[in-house]
Amino acid sequence: MMKKMSIPTSKTSLVLFLCQIISALEVPLDLSQPPTITQQSPKDYIVDPRENIVIQCEAKGKPPPSFSWTRNGTHFDIDKDAQVTMKPNSGTLVINIMNGGKAEAYEGVYQCTARNERGAAISNNIVIRPSRSPLWTKEKLEPNHVREGDSLVLHCRPPVGLPPPIIFWMDNAFQRLPQSERVSQGLNGDLYFSNVQPEDTREDYICYARFNHTQTIQQKQPISVKVFSTKPVTERQPVLLTPTGSTSTKVELRGNVLLLECIAAGLPTPVIRWIKEGGELPANRTFFENFKKTLKIIDVSEADSGNYKCTARNTLGSVHHVISVTVKAAPYWITAPRNLVLSPGEDGTLICRANGNPKPSISWLANGVPIAIAPEDPSRKVDGDTIIFSHVQERSSAVYQCNASNEYGYLLANAFVNVLAEPPRILTPANKLYQVIADSPALLDCAYFGSPKPEIEWFKGVKGSILRGNEYVFHDNGTLEIPVAQKNSAGTYTCVARNELGKIQNEVHLEIKDPTMIIKQPEYKVIQRYGQASFECIIKHDSTLLPTVTWLKDNDELPDDERFLVGKDNLTIMNVTDKDDGTYTCIVNTTLDSVSASAVLTVVARPNPPFDLELTGQLERSVELSWIPGDENNSPITNFVIEYEDALHEPGVWHYQTEVPGTQTTVQLKLSPYVNYSFRVIAVNKIGRSQPSEPSEQYLTKSASPDENPANVQGIGSEPDNLVITWEPLKGFQSNGPGLQYKVSWRQKDVDDEWTSVIVANVSKYIVSGTPTFVPYEVKVQALNDLGYAPEPSEVIGHSGEDLPMVAPGNVQVHVINSTLAKVHWDPVPLKTVRGHLQGYKVYYWKVQSLSRRSRRHVEKKILTFRGNKTFGMLPGLEPYSSYKLNVRVVNGKGEGPASPDKVFKTPEGVPSSPSFLKITNPTLDSLTLEWGSPTHPNGVLTSYTLKFQPINNTHELGPLVEIRIPANESSLILKNLNYSTRYKFYFNAQTSVGSGSQITEEAVTIMDEAGILHPAVGAGKVQPLYPRIRNVTTAAAETYANISWEYEGPDHANFYVEYGVAGSKEDWKKEIVNGSRSFFVLKGLTPGTAYKVRVGAEGLSGFRSAEDVFETGPAMASRQVDIATQGWFIGLMCAVALLILILLIVCFIRRNKGGKYPVKEKEDAHADPEIQPMKEDDGTFGEYSDAEDHKPLKKGSRTPSDRTVKKEDSDDSLVDYGEGVNDWAGGQLFCIEDCRRAMDSKRCRCFRRCIQKLMCGMMHERGILSLNQKPIFQPFHM
C-alpha cells in the first residue's frame, strides 16, 4: 500500500525538508553504535529553590548506554543520597527538594557520561544555581527638596538577585509613574529628572523589583520629593547625568544585545542624538528606546565595534559623550565534528573548527578522556583541529569530544567513529507516494545506510534507463530532486543502493497536481461608514485537492462579530465601522500549497467637527479665529467653512462668512461694527460636511456710522403723476449702529432744480406725487444712524409714471410675398407721443373670408409683437386665396396705443389640399366606380382632378401607370375596360392654376366572374352613402363560439369592433377589436346554451353602431374528440347519401335514355366534350366529371387564366361559402337540391355534388367537427 507524502512548495519549507532528510542519515538503531547525547540541560541552569531539581541527560546507542555523573569534577554517587534518583533507561537526575532537601546544597557543576561497549559520550558542564530574591535592606530615606528647574536622580539600588530583577517605579495606588523626555528610568533602575517641575512634588515615589523565577516583587520604601519655586526659573545648558565624563568603554559579546545610555540634565529638557563615529548605525538592527536616551543594537558582531557618540542639546548649548564599544566573542562553530561510519580498512577524518575573540583553543578527548592519555589506536592521528583515521578496524570504534574554549566560554561536541561492515539498506518506506504542485521542486527520498557507503542510482519507469542530466539533482543523502516538476514528471521512480556487500532497490511514486490559484483577488475598497464592504476570493485548484479558505484581518483572525459574513468565495462586512479599517487577506491552503491575496479596506466618513475654537487679536474690524481639526476619517479635509451668528440682530441664524483650505487652522476675519459675533467651523471632505463645531465665545464690535448705502435703488412711476423710489434695505449687521434711517433725495433731470430730500425709517419705498408724465429724475438714497451718515451715494436715473401712447403708426403698407407669407411696413411714432418706455409694436391681423368659397366665418384675430423700435415684420402662416385685414399699434409699459386704420390685403392662390375622400364602389368584371369629395382647402379655383392608376400582381409588383384628367365639376367616374379579378392602386389629386395638391391613394379589386355580381334587385349599381352605416349583422353560433359577419358602407380603412353580452343582463358590454378592415369576426370562449346580444361598431365614429342582434350558442357536448367513422349518425348519413346518389343517377339515366333533346344537349352532341367520359366497364365507376364552368366563354373584358387552374371559389370552399349560415343548413340544402333539378343537364350533376358536400359539412359543423372557416375533409367523389 502506498504511503502518501506531500512535498511543500515554498523555499523555506524546502530547506527545512532537506535538513530533515540530512539529519535522518543515521545508523539504524538495530546496528551496533556508540552512544549519542540526545538531550541535556542548559550550561547555566538556574532553578527554583521551591521545586525539585531536574537535570536532563538522554542518550541513544546499541547496546543501550549506561549513565554516570560527576559533580564539581568528582564522581557523584547517587546511591548514597536518598534525595537523588535517576530515571529508568535514562540519565536524567531528579533531586527531591520538596521533601526536605535544600537547593543550595546541590549547587555545583554537573556532567553526564553515557557509555556502552563502543564508546562514551559526555554532556556539557551544567552549572546548577538556585534563584534568589533577597529583601531590600532597611534604610532611612530623607525627603528630597529640589528647586524648580534643577535635575534630580532617585536611586533604586535593588538587592542583588539571581537572575537580576526587573525594575519599575509606581506610586501607592500601584499606578506606573508617567515618564517622558524630562523624566525617565535608566538601565540601572534609577529615576532621572532632567529638570523638576512643581507637579513632580509627591511623597510616593516607590521602586519595585520583580524576580521572575520566584514570581516575587520586592518594594523599596517610598521616596518623597518636594519642589520649591523661585522666580524667575533659571535655564541651564545640558549636563550628562549618566554616563559621567566625556568617554567610557563597553564590552559586549557577539550575538548579544548592545545597550548604550545617555541621560542629561538641563532646562529646557535636552534632546538626545546618537551617531557612530566613522560609520553608520546598522540598518534594521538599530532601535531607540526611552525617548531616544537608549541606543539598542541587536545581534551585534565584531563589525559593530567602534565609538558611539551621544549628544544632548537644548537652546543654551550641548554636551556629548563617546562610548568605545568592543565586541568580543565566545567560541562559535565553523565546522562541528560529525559522526563517522566506516567499513573495515577505510579512511576518514573528524574536523573540529571554531572561531571566537580571542581565538579559542581546540582540545580532543576520546570516550571522555583527554586523547593524550587515552588508549592508543594506531589507525588515528591527531593534527590540531583534525583527527585522521587510516585503515580502521572494528576496535577503532569510539566517541570523540572536541572542546573549543576561550575566556568567554566553551563549546563541546561529541562525534563517534563506528566501524561496521553492512550491506545496503533503504530506510525510506516502499511504494511511498509523493504529491507535488506543477512547476515546483519534487524531492524523492531514498534514505539509506550501508558500510561501505553505498552508491545510489535512480531510474524512472519499469524499464527506464538511469537518470542523468541537468534536469535532476542527486543529493548525497540519496534524495532525487526534480527542480521543476512538470506533468510528464509523474510516474514510478526506482532507487537502487549498492556496495561491495550487496544491492537493494525501492520504488516511490510521484503525482503532479495543478497549482492552486486565486483567479479573482480581493480589491482595494473605500467604503463609507455604515456601508457594506465585500471582498471576493475566487479560486481554481486541482480537483483531487480539498482547499480551505481562511480570511485574516491585519494578519490575525477575523473579529468575532456577526457583521462579518464569510461565504464560499467572498467576505462581506455589514455596517462597516472605523475599527474595520485594515488589510484583509484571503489564504487558500491545500495539503500541497498555499496562496494568498490581500486588499486594504479604508473606511471613510464625514470629518469629525473641529473643536477648541479660540478668538485672538480682537480689533474693531477684525479678529483671528483658530481651531483644532477633528478626525478626518480617512478622507482628507479639503476645506473649512466658517459661519457666524449675529446674536444682536438675528439670534439663532447662522450666515456664511468665508472658507479656507483644509491645511489651514487659523483665519483673519473681517468684522462689521455693532454686531455681536460668535463663530463656528465646519470641516468638509469628499464624503461631506461635518457637524458644526461648538460656537466660539461672543465678541461685540463697537458702533460706527454706516459703511454702505442701500442697493438696487430704482425710480419707477406707478401712475402718470407719481414717482415711486424703492431700495433694498440694509441688513441688521450692515447698520453699524443703532437708529438706522434713510435719506431719500430726488430732482428732475436736465432741469436746474435743487434736491428734494426726506428722511424715513423702517421702509424700503417712498412715493413722490404730482410729477409730470414720464420725465427723467435723478434719485439717490443714503443710509444714516445715530453715529452719522454713510458715504455719499451714487445717483440713479428713474422716470415718473407712464401713460398710454397718443398716436397710431402711420403709412402701413403690406407686401404679399407668396400665398402664405406677407411683409408689413409702418412708420415709427414720435417718441414724445409714446409717453413711456417704447416696448415695441403689435400687428393685429385676421382672415376676412376665403376667395374660393365666399363664405364668412368666425373672425379669429392673431397678434404678432415686434420688440424695440422695429418698423417692419413678417406675417407667416397665411391661408392661400384669402382676404385679410390688419392694423398696427405702438406699445409702452402702460399698454397699447390706438390702432392704425385697417389695411386689407389678399393672398394669391396656392395648391389645394388632398380630396376629402375617395371611394371605389360597384366592382364588376371590367369596371370600377370612383367617387370623391372636393378638397377641404381648395386654396384657389380648382381647374381639374388627376387620376392615376396601375395594376398590382400577386407579387405586389406595379404595372404600367395610366393617367386621366377629370374636369373640376365632376365628383364620380366609372372606369371601364379593366381586367377581371385584378387589384388596382389609385392616386387622386386636385389642381389649381398654381399646381397640383397632395394626393390620396386607394386600392380596389375587380370581381372574378358573374357569380360575384349582385343582381339589380340586391343593390347593384347603388352608390355607397356619404355617411357610413353597418347593416345585415348575421351570426352563426356553435357550442362555445360564434361567427359574426356584417355589411359596411362608408369611408375605407374603418377599424371595427364587436360588442357582446348575455341577453337580458345589465352587465357592461364586452368589446373585441377586429384586426384590419375585415367584415367578420369569431367570438370565442362563449358559454354553451346561452343567449347573447351582439352589435358592431366603427372606431373613431362616435355613436356609430349597428342594430343589436341576438343569438344562442349550442348545447354542451360531452366530448368532441371522437372518431366520426365509428359514429352511428355518420354511418346513417353516408347510407342516406349513397341512396340519394343512386336515385339521382337513375333519374339522370332515364332522362338521357328518353331521347329528348334540348339546347344544351344539342350542343353537347355537336361538340363532344372531352371532359365527359363514359362509364368504365372494367370497374363499374363513372368517368371523372369536369366542371364546365371552368371553361365557359370569356365575357367582355375578362381573360381565362393561362395555367387553367381552378379558382378558389370553385374548389377551396370553406364552411362559410356553403350557405348563408350554419343554423339553416338543412333547409338551405333542400332548396339547393330543388334548384339543381331545374338546372341544365350539363350543370345538374355538378350542382348536386356541391349540395351534397354542403349538406355533409353542415352536419359535421353542427356536431362540432368542423370550424366555420375549415375546409371540408373529403376526397372528391365522381358522378
TrEMBL record:
<dbReference type="Pfam" id="PF07679">
    <property type="entry name" value="I-set"/>
</dbReference>
<keyword id="KW-0472">Membrane</keyword>
<dbReference type="Pfam" id="PF00041">
    <property type="entry name" value="fn3"/>
</dbReference>
<keyword id="KW-0677">Repeat</keyword>
<feature type="domain" description="Fibronectin type-III">
    <location>
        <begin position="808"/>
        <end position="910"/>
    </location>
</feature>
<keyword id="KW-0812">Transmembrane</keyword>
<dbReference type="GO" id="GO:0007155">
    <property type="term" value="P:cell adhesion"/>
</dbReference>
<dbReference type="GO" id="GO:0030424">
    <property type="term" value="C:axon"/>
</dbReference>
<feature type="domain" description="Ig-like">
    <location>
        <begin position="515"/>
        <end position="602"/>
    </location>
</feature>
<dbReference type="InterPro" id="IPR003961">
    <property type="entry name" value="FN3_dom"/>
</dbReference>
<dbReference type="Pfam" id="PF13927">
    <property type="entry name" value="Ig_3"/>
</dbReference>
<feature type="domain" description="Ig-like">
    <location>
        <begin position="130"/>
        <end position="224"/>
    </location>
</feature>
<dbReference type="GO" id="GO:0005886">
    <property type="term" value="C:plasma membrane"/>
</dbReference>
<feature type="signal peptide">
    <location>
        <begin position="1"/>
        <end position="24"/>
    </location>
</feature>
<feature type="domain" description="Fibronectin type-III">
    <location>
        <begin position="709"/>
        <end position="803"/>
    </location>
</feature>
<feature type="compositionally biased region" description="Polar residues">
    <location>
        <begin position="690"/>
        <end position="706"/>
    </location>
</feature>
<keyword id="KW-1015">Disulfide bond</keyword>
<feature type="domain" description="Fibronectin type-III">
    <location>
        <begin position="609"/>
        <end position="704"/>
    </location>
</feature>
<feature type="domain" description="Ig-like">
    <location>
        <begin position="331"/>
        <end position="418"/>
    </location>
</feature>
<dbReference type="InterPro" id="IPR036179">
    <property type="entry name" value="Ig-like_dom_sf"/>
</dbReference>
<dbReference type="InterPro" id="IPR007110">
    <property type="entry name" value="Ig-like_dom"/>
</dbReference>
<keyword id="KW-1133">Transmembrane helix</keyword>
<feature type="compositionally biased region" description="Basic and acidic residues">
    <location>
        <begin position="1201"/>
        <end position="1210"/>
    </location>
</feature>
<keyword id="KW-0393">Immunoglobulin domain</keyword>
<feature type="domain" description="Fibronectin type-III">
    <location>
        <begin position="914"/>
        <end position="1010"/>
    </location>
</feature>
<keyword id="KW-1003">Cell membrane</keyword>
<keyword id="KW-0325">Glycoprotein</keyword>
<dbReference type="InterPro" id="IPR013098">
    <property type="entry name" value="Ig_I-set"/>
</dbReference>
<comment type="similarity">
    <text>Belongs to the immunoglobulin superfamily. L1/neurofascin/NgCAM family.</text>
</comment>
<dbReference type="InterPro" id="IPR003598">
    <property type="entry name" value="Ig_sub2"/>
</dbReference>
<dbReference type="InterPro" id="IPR003599">
    <property type="entry name" value="Ig_sub"/>
</dbReference>
<feature type="region of interest" description="Disordered">
    <location>
        <begin position="690"/>
        <end position="710"/>
    </location>
</feature>
<dbReference type="Pfam" id="PF13882">
    <property type="entry name" value="Bravo_FIGEY"/>
</dbReference>
<feature type="compositionally biased region" description="Basic and acidic residues">
    <location>
        <begin position="1160"/>
        <end position="1179"/>
    </location>
</feature>
<feature type="domain" description="Fibronectin type-III">
    <location>
        <begin position="1024"/>
        <end position="1116"/>
    </location>
</feature>
<feature type="domain" description="Ig-like">
    <location>
        <begin position="35"/>
        <end position="123"/>
    </location>
</feature>
<dbReference type="InterPro" id="IPR013783">
    <property type="entry name" value="Ig-like_fold"/>
</dbReference>
<dbReference type="InterPro" id="IPR036116">
    <property type="entry name" value="FN3_sf"/>
</dbReference>
<feature type="domain" description="Ig-like">
    <location>
        <begin position="238"/>
        <end position="326"/>
    </location>
</feature>
<feature type="transmembrane region" description="Helical">
    <location>
        <begin position="1129"/>
        <end position="1150"/>
    </location>
</feature>
<dbReference type="InterPro" id="IPR026966">
    <property type="entry name" value="Neurofascin/L1/NrCAM_C"/>
</dbReference>
<keyword id="KW-0732">Signal</keyword>
